[in-house]
Amino acid sequence: MTQDARLAEMPDGWTRALAVVAHPDDLEYGGSGAIARWTDEGREVAYVLATRGEAGIDGMTPEEAGPLREREQVASAAVVGVHTVEFLDHADGMIEYGLPLRRDIAAAIRRHRPELVVMTNHHDTWPGGQWLNMADHRHVGQATLDAVRDAANRWVFRDLLDEGLEPWQGVRWVAVVASPEATHAVDITTTIDRAVDSLREHRAYLAGLGENAMADPDTFLREAAAETGKRFGGGLACAFELIPM
């Protein structure tokens, strides 16, 4: 889909979603407005993060940053109605695509049994194509796509059966936040304020960004939502690449 093509409505025939991302703040840069709307509608959403974001603040050691960013993520999720936040403890900045990561995500999918899986951009670049996407995002995204199938197959990661995690074949879609190949959107006009407040909970991370434009949640999120809204009938919107499973 071209960058100026009209975006379709996201499907609403689901009740449970699982968001799987690499770091604290990944969902807040673009996805939390939609999550707030979904929880307002009575849908269940849980978060699973591959890392605790311990390598994300240059002026703070990982030993200090990890616990702090974990607390900030839990507070951030609560702002948009998400109260289940899990961390898989892979190494921030050094996530490797492979069987251990796929297994951990497949286990999470079996635990939470979602119909919709949300993740961040797994492509090489961001919308517009000018910025290279980091390896953590790409590896977690690709592992999540593969783990959806792993979670459905009884004979993949058979040790999960010993943990009482039966196969889950109920994932119908994967929705990719901040994808350069967006196809669908959610109107977030009524939830943009909570999206901004959710990102603001990442206080230490934002402070570490200095003068970077991403350090201003209000301007960054509202401008991005307004730009997406131009492709979605006006107003403010959050875009997704929707992948049927």
UniProtKB/TrEMBL annotation:
Keywords associated with the record: Zinc
GO terms classed as biological process: glycoside metabolic process
One GO MF term: hydrolase activity, acting on carbon-nitrogen (but not peptide) bonds, in linear amides
InterPro entries, alphabetized: GlcNAc_PI_deacetylase-related, LmbE-like_dom_sf
Pfam family, one: PIG-L
Domain of life: Bacteria
Name of this chain's protein: GlcNAc-PI de-N-acetylase
Phylogenetic lineage: Bacteria, Bacillati, Actinomycetota, Actinomycetes, Pseudonocardiales
